[in-house]
Amino acid sequence: MTKHCKLYVLLTTITVFVIFAAIALGACYQAVTTEVHVRYAGMMNIASEKLGKTIRGMEMNAMNVFDEVEKHLDSPDAVIEALYSKTSLNPEVRGYFAAFEPNYFPAKGTWFEPYVVHIDSDDFELRMVGSARHNYHKSDWYIRAKQSSDSFWSDPYYYYDGSNISGHYTTFVKPVFDAQGRLACVCGADMTFEWLGKELQRIDEDFRNNELLNQYKLDSDGDFFTAVLDDDGSCIVSPEGKKVTLTQEQMVLSLSEKKSGTIDIDIDGVPSTIYYCPIERVNWSVAIVVAKQSMWGVLLRLSGILLLVAVIGILLIWFAIRKVKG
Predict the structure, then answer these.
(1) Angle between the 3-71 and 293-323 helix axes, to the nearest 10 degrees?
(2) Is the dihedral of CA 240, 241, 242, 244 positive or negative?
(3) Distance between CA 89 and CA 86 in Å, rounded?
């Protein structure tokens, strides 16, 4: 075999290996991206369903308290006892209140709002919080309850009074009507977001240890975390040290319209993909934040393996060609 023929065979072999490697890498890329999308989209839906169930359970416990208030509208003392009666149902509730219409109980005047608040792991105490300074009749949640006549979750807010109950809250609110159909009061269950943080932590741990979810996992790094976003794109809860804030107009519109989707964004300088979908009953969305390096890591490893195989193959063929006498 002449030198010209050997060179031709070698170049042909290199071309074949390059084409094969490109096709294989393209197939690997498609397989990895498809697997990643299916897995994290599935995790997103599971997280949304779990959070929805937890929220429904908290609503049911709060409704039991509100129902007791509705049954005991005959006197202020009976209302207070009703608020106390089922405080043990949900340890995550910081306090229950009943904010009454002006002069519903004439002796109590314009502002009668008993608040049974959880002060430590075991005890609750009564606080009377309605006043001219705290004119709850003008509060957004009170006005909304009167207008909607249905239960709802308030927007997240920060409450500070210098005591141990200061913190980030959300409130489950329901208007309560008396036997004559008149609005008597607006009841609420105040909750900090500690329960939501604990729930997200449990969800992430379940995902990382779930054999079925990880059975066909291709991106072995698995660098992700779960967060909850408000409908304005702000982050309600995320793991410590992680912060997700979305300001893109189209993304915020998508969240406010309770849509599902994905978006590519840098989180703390790390290129990431966010999978998001709404949570039932609240104006929040669950978000699975995945670092793109998780996907690129496996592709780089596959590229390295393909390159090594190609180089070894080319070298073997080159040595075989050299032994052929020409």
Answers:
(1) 160
(2) positive
(3) 6
| Cβ pair 293, 270 in contact under 8 A | yes
Q: CA angle, 224 as apex, 218 and 229 as ends, to 5°?
A: 140
Q: Are 171 and 154 spatial neighbours (Cβ–Cβ below 8 Å)? A: yes
What type of residue is 129? V
Per-residue pLDDT reduced to its tens digit, 101-134: 999 999 999 999 999 988 766 678 899 988 998 8
Distance of alpha carbon 126 from alpha carbon 92, whole angstroms: 18
Pairwise CA distance, residues 277 & 256, whole Å: 11
Residue 192 corresponds to which tokens in the numbers above? 């900090």
Question: Tokens 């509208």 correspond to what residue?
Answer: 73
In sequence order, the 6+-apart residues with CB closer than 8 A to the CB of 295 are 32, 33, 36, 219
Within 8 A by CB and 6+ apart from 49, the residues are none
Structure confidence by residue, pLDDT tens digits, 3-17: 667 666 667 777 777
